[in-house]
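User: These chains co-purify. Model them together.
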Amino acid sequence: MKRAVILFSGQGSQVDGMGIDFYQADPRFKEMIDQASELTKLSLLEVFKNCQTATTLELQPALTAFEVALFQMLTQDFELEIVGAVGLSLGEYPALIASGALFVPEGLALVTKRAKFMQAEAKTQQGALVAVLKPDLTELNKLCQQCSNEQEIVQIANYNSPKQVVLGGHVATVERLTTKLAVQGKKVVKLNVAGAFHTPLFATSKAQLAKEVTQIKFKDPAFTIFSNTTVEPFTAENLASILPKQVIEPTHFAKCLTQTLETKQPDLLLEIGPGNTLSKFARQIERSIPRYQVDTLERYRKTLAELREQE
Amino acid sequence: MTKEEILNKVQEIVSEQLDIEPQEVVLTADIKEDLEADSLDVFEIMNELEDELDIQLEADESIKTIQDVVNHVATQVAAAD
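Assistant: Joint model of the two components:
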């Protein structure tokens, strides 16, 4: 049996019309999405159709439901030994639900609350995220400190791959830093997001989530999931303290994947979620490992056929 | 640098960035529609071309296909000579 590590993509990966093909073709997917719509009180199919205009409040539960449904179908359709998973940011929620650390209804409820808190907080402030290519991390951290002050900050929000990091903070501070980087000839691109996720700009969301998680009895994940925040494996004990912190601290996808590859030695990576962003990061981290995606029905079938062929 | 050499370089960089086979990177391919690149991918591709060929590329919304990229790069390479 193939040893697989599953990658769960985060917010920003959504594309208009995602999941419609599965919804029409597979009754299992339809049932799971309909149930998730009831649980979250959102019309998830409508969110799938109009992802580009959807809000954080809608997108986080929609992506979670989409990815969990695909995970469940995949594990029914093909026997894989799942030895680990890495989610990016929001993607940690579908990863945790898939691993059994959270039951589906409680996981969806929690992610819906997280989305609500983050959307409300994003509206109260002017935050921005920008991607920086081929960064010198020491230099970049120094510049972030120079540009930040007591009221307004900028910091590294996502350590995505050796070739790319994302900076987040207050708009004015981010702009100051962008200008400095441009002078040095560094390339910076503004990301189209609702706020400076993974920075202290979301301190209220963190506090609100900390209250919510006290209601939940987490289980140990069935497979290893290194936390984006601490780069330690999630456990029933540490989830309640890490998940709230996750919204204000940087994500370390690259380190999580490296740790997972080293400790689990998987045969392949399988990305669940729209697009192949995480597979691209994975290739920049360790190019030799085979990568598969299951974002559309067509690619789902192709991936299954390829995996079966290798047996 | 001939257009063929430029195309080879573009194919190498685009296939690397998008994790696809170089043969898929044909002149008529639309980068976003056919090759499923997002705007950050396009940005990374342009940045890589700039670094490897030692040229400056301006962000240009009219660049859609691989042919457009090759033409744009060819113009800048000629200007740099």
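Chain B has a mean pLDDT of 89.
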